[in-house]
């Protein structure tokens, strides 16, 4: 039975949320094409026509923003009073402390907006709040300056945030604050970036990637660039001897009509391709390492992979898992079982089994890819008169419900589980069950900090991690590094780190 995949609507890319492009048509701001700020002062448009076209979608949030700044001004500002800063210059003394403040203010703003709207925020509305520009030195946004002025009955201390003149992605509220952070932003390697790049350089790459998404997949975010080469290798090749550059030639052929754009475009294509391909490639690399580089697993007829905590990323990018078939030519059937509470929003409330369409080469040789979905609901809602049919909520519940029918997979993987931040008790039961049953397992993380925290959690319950599997950088993590919302200098990437692997 085929799953009915529910595809969420597109959300504006990050640079439109930051006021660098029209929130409706995504046309970038320039010296000759300035943008007009909406009355709520949170989004920008290239002109009245775009603002009018967007108004039915934006008007309720627009009114809510204005009401929030008046009704909850003191609550929003109180968090800033807990940040240690110079009493004269208002420059924050501790970056982590300031980021904690920004996180709390962002969460509070979302809660109050939902209260005013009497509904939950959509994904694009959440982005408007989360990506609100802040000064790198004091953490204040234009909204906070307005609130301070309103409560203190004085003019705002800043006429408005200004973007970095080089990258346009980071902001400052005054010349003094810019001179304070300029070296850290433009000269020093970013602590939370990659390859010793500065925050300014990382920002410019992020902007290139966002622009690319409009060329290749108009209207989508770069994360939705879904590509894999339609070729099957003749024999298994160890991933130790290759890296993401291996895909350059295939991408150059696939996008030969764009060759006039040059090498920088091709490199951006490679980065974009890694976002989704990091899933199958991390699976293959994990299988290779967990099997201590014994390639007997590559000669199996069937590979059984469990994807735990599955969400929209895995379901909407489902086609890329075919790369496992392409790189393991002796494999006849790839079975992926997706387990996770969020699946009910994507595949419906009931368990479904889908045979995925594969490329012509795979189809010709009867090579199959089966996707098995297990959503949250514990019974079949389609037939309420029938007896309840058990369906998993979490992976440890899935294991228990399967009982003697449970077949140990070749690998169980949790992509960017964030198991150190939410539902910790439930995740603990899950990875304990995986370890006790000796299931070959791997957990990935968005960044080094998360990976190291999760590795401590694993060790804390007696799990012995494979010495080559974490915490460590993932050689097959995404090359799309994105600024972390409500953080001043941090970046993250899909599957960029391995938290831990065990069997």
Automatic annotation (TrEMBL):
It comes from the Eukaryota. InterPro entries: Mss51-like_C, Znf_MYND. The keyword Zinc-finger applies. Pfam families: MSS51_C, zf-MYND. Keywords: Metal-binding, Zinc, Zinc-finger. Residues 22-62 form the MYND-type domain. PROSITE patterns: ZF_MYND_1 (PS01360), ZF_MYND_2 (PS50865). GO terms for molecular function: zinc ion binding. This is MYND-type domain-containing protein. It comes from Gymnopilus junonius.
């Amino acid at each position: 039975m085929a799953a009915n995949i529910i595809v969420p609507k597109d959300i504006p890319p990050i640079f439109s949320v930051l006021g660098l492009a029209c929130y409706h048509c995504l046309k970038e701001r320039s010296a000759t094409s300035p943008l007009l700020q909406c009355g709520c002062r949170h989004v920008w448009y290239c002109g009245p026509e775009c603002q009018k076209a967007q108004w039915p979608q934006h008007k309720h949030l627009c009114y809510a923003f204005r009401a929030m700044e008046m009704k909850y001004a003191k609550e929003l500002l109180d968090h800033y009073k807990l940040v240690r800063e110079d009493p004269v210059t208002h420059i924050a003394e501790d970056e982590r402390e300031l980021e904690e403040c920004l996180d709390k203010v962002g969460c509070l703003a979302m809660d109050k907006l939902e209260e005013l709207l009497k509904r939950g925020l959509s994904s694009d509305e959440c982005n408007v709040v989360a990506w609100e520009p802040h000064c790198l030195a004091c953490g204040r946004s234009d909204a906070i300056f307005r609130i301070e002025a309103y409560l203190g009955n004085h003019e705002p201390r800043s006429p408005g945030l200004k973007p970095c003149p080089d990258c346009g992605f980071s902001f400052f509220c005054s010349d003094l604050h810019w001179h304070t952070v300029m070296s850290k932003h433009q000269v020093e390697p970013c602590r939370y970036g990659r390859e010793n790049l500065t925050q300014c350089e990382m920002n410019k790459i992020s902007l290139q990637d966002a622009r690319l998404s409009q060329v290749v997949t108009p209207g989508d975010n770069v994360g939705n660039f879904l590509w894999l080469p339609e070729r099957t290798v003749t024999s298994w090749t160890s991933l130790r001897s290759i890296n993401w550059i291996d895909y350059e030639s295939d991408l150059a052929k696939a996008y030969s009509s764009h060759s006039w754009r040059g090498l920088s475009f091709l490199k951006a294509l490679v980065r974009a391709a890694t976002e989704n391909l990091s899933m199958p490639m991390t699976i293959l690399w994990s299988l290779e390492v967990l099997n201590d580089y014994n390639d007997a697993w590559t000669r199996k007829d069937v590979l059984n992979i469990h994807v735990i905590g599955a969400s929209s990323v895995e379901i909407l990018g489902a086609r890329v898992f075919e790369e496992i078939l392409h790189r393991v030519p002796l494999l006849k059937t790839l079975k992926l079982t997706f387990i996770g509470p969020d699946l009910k929003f994507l595949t419906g409330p009931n368990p479904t089994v889908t045979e995925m369409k594969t490329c012509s080469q795979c189809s010709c040789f009867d090579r199959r890819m089966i996707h098995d979905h297990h959503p949250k609901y514990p019974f079949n809602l389609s037939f309420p008169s029938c007896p309840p049919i058990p369906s998993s909520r979490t992976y440890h519940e899935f294991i228990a419900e399967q009982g003697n029918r449970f077949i140990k997979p070749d690998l169980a993987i949790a992509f960017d589980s964030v198991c150190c931040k939410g539902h910790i008790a439930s995740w603990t039961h899950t990875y304990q069950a995986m370890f006790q049953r000796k299931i070959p397992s791997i957990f990935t993380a968005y960044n080094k900090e998360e990976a190291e925290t999760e590795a401590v959690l694993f060790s804390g319950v007696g799990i012995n991690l494979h010495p080559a599997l974490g915490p460590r950088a993932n050689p097959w993590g995404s090359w799309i590094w994105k600024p972390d919302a409500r953080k001043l200098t941090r970046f993250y990437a899909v599957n960029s780190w391995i938290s831990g692997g065990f069997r």
